[in-house]
Structures are given as C-alpha cells and as structure tokens.
Amino acid sequence: MKVIHVRETTTLAEVLSEAAKQPVVIERDGTNYELHLAGPPADLFAHYDAAAAIAALDHAAAVLGPITPAEAEQWKAEVKAARGQAGRTFDD
Fold first, then answer.
1. Which residues, at least 6 apart from 37, have a Cβ–Cβ distance to it below 8 Å?
2. Residuewise pLDDT in 10s, the chain (92 residues)
C-alpha cells in the first residue's frame, strides 16, 4: 500500500488521484489513515416494507395509547433538535 506523507503543500486532489489508483495510507504527524475507493452508496430503501412500518406504528400506538397535543409538540421539537445535531460539522 502506498504511503502519502501529508505536508503543508499536499492537496486533496493529489491524495484522491493516488487513491483512485490503489488504496493508500495517509500519514500526518505520525498518525496513519487508510483511504480506499468506496462502492456506490447503498439504497436505503431497498428492503423498505411500508406495510410493516405502518403495522409497527399501529402496534406502538396501541401499546402507548393516545398522546396529547402537547406531547406531540414536544416529540416534534425533540426530533427537530436531533436532526439539527446530526447535520453539524466538526467546525460547529
């Protein structure tokens, strides 16, 4: 596996060009990172079963019982907050 020593002048384009040819190890300040080509993104809905999802929701509703409008708003706020956290980057 080829080792690329990262310096101030090393560009991402250079590293990716090498990684397109073969897997590489990127070394910077004594830390190694392996980089290789990934396959195509997975189809997240390849095995999605809408009927099973609806049945699970119906079952959960039967077990949990009805929720109040205030509980629904609280749940939506929690989901929105969680989504905001998932979209954060390391620079936030």
1. 19, 20, 23
2. 899 999 999 999 999 999 999 999 999 999 999 998 888 888 888 899 999 999 999 999 899 888 899 999 998 999 888 887 765 555 54
Report yes or no: 14 and 27 within 8 Å, Cβ to Cβ: no
Residue recorded with tokens 């706020």: 77
Amino acid at 79: V
Residue that has been written with the tokens 């409008």 in this structure: 69
Distance of CA 62 to the CA centre of its chain: 32
Distance of alpha carbon 54 from alpha carbon 6, whole angstroms: 51
Domain segments of the chain as ranges: 2-35, 50-86
